[in-house]
Amino acid sequence: MRDLQQLHAHLLKTGQAQSTYPASKLIQFCALSPSGSMAYAQRLLPAIESPDTFTFNTMIRGYTKTGAPKQALLFFVYMIEIAHPPNTHTFPFVLKACAHVEELKLGQSLHAHVVKLGFLADMHIQTALVSLYSVCSDLEAAQRVFDRITHRTVASWNSMISGYVKGNLPKRAFEACDEMLQVAAEPDEVTVASLLCACADTGALGLGRWLHDYIAKKGIKLDAIVGTALIDMYAKCGSIERAEEVFGIMHEKNVLTWTAMMWGLAMCDRGESSLGFFYQMLETTDIKPDAVTFVTVLSACSHTGLVDEGRRLFACMTRDFGIEPRVEHFGCMVDLFSRAGLVDEALKLMESMPLEPDAALLGSILSACSRSPGHVELAESVASPLLALEPDNEATYVLLSNIYASENRWDDVVRVRKRMKARGMTKTPGSSLIEVGGQVYEFIAGDKRHPLSNDIHKMVEEIERKVKEMGYVMDISEVFLDLDGDMKKEVLLHHSEKLAVAFGLISMNSSEPIRISKNLRICGDCHSMLKMVSMVYSRELIVRDRSRFHRFREGSCSCGDFW
Ligand code: ZN
Ligand code: ZN
User: Fold this and answer.
1) C-alpha 548 – ligand 2 centre gap (Å)
2) 56 CA distance to ligand 1 middle (Å)
3) pTM summary value
4) Is the pLDDT of residue 406 over 70?
5) CA gyration radius, the chain
6) CA of 417 to the centre of ligand 1 (A)
7) Ligand 2 mean position to 52 CA, how many Å?
8) 462-490 residue pLDDT tens
9) b/e burial code for range 65-80 (CB count within 10 A of at least 16 → b)
10) pLDDT per position as a tens digit, 526-559
11) CA nearest to 235, candidates 205, 191, 211
12) 563 Cα to the center of ligand 2, angstroms
């Protein structure tokens, strides 16, 4: 800064401060050097007699790069207002600023501007547009621009791929990666981190391992971003040992890295180890936990039943780290109390909190009511706001109906069922993903789309026959459709995770564990059937459902039938 001020003084003394060239160079220096200051650059600007486009671009770029996207956009507006024409170098940073604030409407009008000025063929502008649309979740628009790019850079591939990942289209992300490799574009650390995210979302461990090899082979640096993405991928694919290995060899770790590790351990019922990492982070590094870290450790406590530890952590979050509890933190505590059977304490906490409870929190209390008898009134009082928040969540109706049934209140059971039926069953269809031979397959309930569909359905029947011999009885209590008993059995038998398991059994090497990820909570019937399958077929089955991992081995599950 002092150099800048001296230079500025010199320009003033020699009467050059108003001439465009030296003054705009000074602005450039101010705006773009790490020691510069945007405020100073802004002060210099009015002194220039006729600032050129280069100077305007420098300002916009400077604001975008220093994390002030709104100022960058305002500056662009000012440029247009005074009728100073933008050029091709103006737009990439304006678009980037727009992506930062995620303003789709503004982005569309900038896009129109680009077209009107005839700049659409510019590669940097195209890439920035793809990225903007991806960030704003308008994938169709992103794809349209992307398809027009004649010379795609790694940056433009990355924008498209991260758009697919963010838009929950992992398969498209993998396909784009294939295409990218075919045209000999080399994935870089950004591509790899996005794809690892897609693997984590789908439980595609094989592809994740391939990416890990690729990172090693290409010498891609295992920095905090790539390393954390790897840890997260292994953890979410149920391979916590590999996550720990990666964690062990990483040199650069940040709070996200530590939290990813804690999360992975918490989800596979190693709550104590998860907390161990938390304390290790506090004791051996200068890294401060953030709000997400606390959600993670509090969930670890709740999954492991560590009530006192949870209480302590909840208190120290605000006292020692100045983090105000959000509804998620209260939710974890309520869940912790509910799971431990402390329904009254859970309720007291909910009533005392200064925030509106969310669906997860109300759901925890409702499931607590379903586990401890005599709480019908409480159940009703949380079910109505819960149904207002999530009118199509089947689990709520099921819990409520079970609670009434346990008190023999059959009229109420019927009433709940009618209400559910009236809603027309628009719940999210259950879907299970399984990766076989480097490809991710999706099954939905009753699915017949797979080319091996006949074999898969035959296998389901075989499984049913074999597990019945072992004493399995189908549990139809959670099927909420208005069907007769046989039809209910038919529906249950074709739940997506059963189809995925059958497919895994017929198509995978018998020494490999079968890994499935499911978008909803696994139902009680699938859970007890998979326990049997793990015994009858001597196979390890790892199912990640909406809230946790289930590792089925030799007839039992790691969750201890509590999920
Ligand atoms: Zn099921
Ligand atoms: Zn389980």
Assistant:
1) 8
2) 60
3) 0.74
4) yes
5) 28
6) 19
7) 66
8) 999 998 888 888 776 666 555 566 666 66
9) bbebbebbbebbeebe
10) 898 999 999 999 999 999 988 788 999 998 888 8
11) 205
12) 7
Measured in Å, residue 484 CA sits from the centre of ligand 2 at 28
Whether the per-residue pLDDT at 427 is higher than 70: the answer is: no
Minimum-distance ligand to the CA of 522?
1
Q: Which of the pair, 168 or 211, is modelled with greater confidence?
A: 211
CB contact set of 56 (below 8 Å; sequence gap of 6+): 75, 79, 84, 86, 90
Q: Which ligand is nearest to the CA of 521?
A: 1
Residue 119 pLDDT more than 70? yes
Q: Which amino acid is at 199?
A: C
Q: Which amino acid is at 32?
A: L
Ligand 1 midpoint to CA 525 (Å): 5
Does position 340 have pLDDT exceeding 70, yes or no?
yes
- Which residue from 192, 245, 254, 179 is spatially nearest to 219, judged by alpha carbons? 192
Q: How far is the CA of 168 from the centre of ligand 1 (A)?
A: 23
With the CA atoms of 375, 380, 382 and 385 taken in that order, what torsion angle do they form, in degrees rounded to the nearest 10? Answer: 180
CA–centroid distance, 467 to ligand 2, in Å, is 17
Q: What secondary structure, in 3-state letters, does 89-150 show?
A: CHHHHHHHHHHHHCCHHHHHHHHHHHHHCCCCCCHHHHHHHHHHHHHCCCHHHHHHHHHHCC
Residue 3: Cβ-neighbour burial (10 angstroms; 0-12, 13-18, 19+): exposed
List the structure tokens of 533.
Answer: 């399958």
**Measured in angstroms, how far is the CA atom of residue 520 from the centroid of ligand 1?**
10
- Amino acid type, 36: G
- Expressed in angstroms and rounded, the spacing between residue 493 Cα and the centre of ligand 2 is 18
Residues with CB under 5 A from ligand 1 (ion): 495, 523, 526
Q: How far is the CA of 44 from the centre of ligand 2 (A)?
A: 65
* Residue matched to tokens 């790691």: 558
DSSP for 299-346? HHHHHHT-HHHHHHHHHHHHHHH-PPP-HHHHHHHHHHHHHTT-HHHH
CA of 557 to the centre of ligand 2 (A): 5
Q: How far apart are CA 327 and CA 295, in angstroms?
A: 10
Distance from Cα 161 to the centre of ligand 2, integer Å? 34
Cα–Cα distance for residue pair 343/324, rounded to 1 Å: 24
Between the CA of 298 and the centroid of ligand 1 the distance, in Å, is 28
In whole angstroms, give the CA distance from residue 368 to residue 375. 9
Alpha-carbon distance of 552 to 516, in angstroms, equals 11
Residues 16-43: tens digit of each pLDDT: 766 667 777 777 777 777 666 778 777 7
Instruction: Domain ranges for the chain, please list them.
Output: 180-252, 431-557
455 alpha carbon – ligand 1 mean position (Å)? 20
Q: Environment class of residue 322 by beta-carbon count within 10 Å: exposed (0-12), middle (13-18) or buried (19+)?
A: exposed
